Fold:
Amino acid sequence: MGRVRTGMLAFLTAVLATSALAAPVAAATTRYVDDDGRAGPKRGCDGSQEVPRRIQPAIDASGPFDTVLVCPGVYRGRIVIDGTAKEGMNLFGTTASGAIIRPPDPSRWRGGSLLTVRGAGRVWLKRLRLEAPTAGDCRRIVTMVTIGPDSPDTEVLGLRIVPKGRNTIGRCGYHRGIWVRERSPSWLDSNRVRDFRDSGIVVERSGDDQQDASRVTTNRVRYRHAAEGRPAESLAGISVASDGSSVLDNDVLGAEPRPYPGRPGLDIGIHLDGRMQSASGNTVRYARVGIDTELVWSATLAWGLYLARNVVLDTRVGIRLDWVLDGTVAGNRVRRSDVGIEVIGPGPLKEVAMRIRDNDLRGNALACSDDSRGVGTAGTAHRYQRNLGSKSEPRRICD
Structure:
């Protein structure tokens, strides 16, 4: 009998210990923000429960994996999601572009970023509209959305980033739309960025392998300032510098040339710098250089650059390849440009660096220009195959 009791006691002790170890983590909390101070879980933004009128207090009260839902309205003030205590947090607008974030009163604005995520990974930002005033008593915003440093796996989805007012290239507005900083590989998808001063989307070096890469997909970047009769100041619509394997897919970048005929709105549509970069299915129109790549290489020389199925229209140079040491450029279409594909270096090389094939380069003043030297086509460092064009330098590479 004693042995039975002893065995039962040991069994119960083990069960209780296991239960303690398996105790569930506190459930994530959802908080509402509404500029009228009333919302709630039962009726959403039409609820009667008292909630914060500003976004930052709701963020400050939130912990890991909590969600802050922002009802339609106008919210003034800088937003910061900071530190590992905010890991996995969600900041969502309840409707597309209904929640509008603007900077505080100019007397309390000291520059910097309007919305910042730093030191917190796996944060989601979704369905918010950020506006930069361009007239009246206003201050210029440096960056509308900053991710990082040290904010890996952040997702920025469906944001609208725009100036507010007609004088969009005046003394106010904003410099950068979205800035992804170091050690913060992120996914940027379906965002709309319009009328920036310097760059629409900038991704800095964020990782050293394919798992640490950023993805920039299905975004719309537009540079069409109010007619001021002056050329663009922008550096690039989308700029990615990566040591991982960054991907740009199905983005659309455009500008409006009419305010300054003959002077394209964007300096560079897409700029790629680093190694193992991929850009496919993108569209660029009205830029000095449509797609600009430099120093793109692969440590294994398996592939460094992959440009495919991109469409580039109305540029001075459609695709520029500057010292690209390895890669494939295939199936792209360039129209109404001074030069369809311009290759600068390298050389001389003992092996073929790039494969440039099946590109449609008709309708440009010069289909291809290549000053490299090596064992490729026509004495260049690259292999050209089945490209369509009427004139090339040297001959026989794209004509």
In short: Helices lie at 2-21, 55-60. Confidence is low (pLDDT under 50) at residues 1-6, 15-25, 228-232.
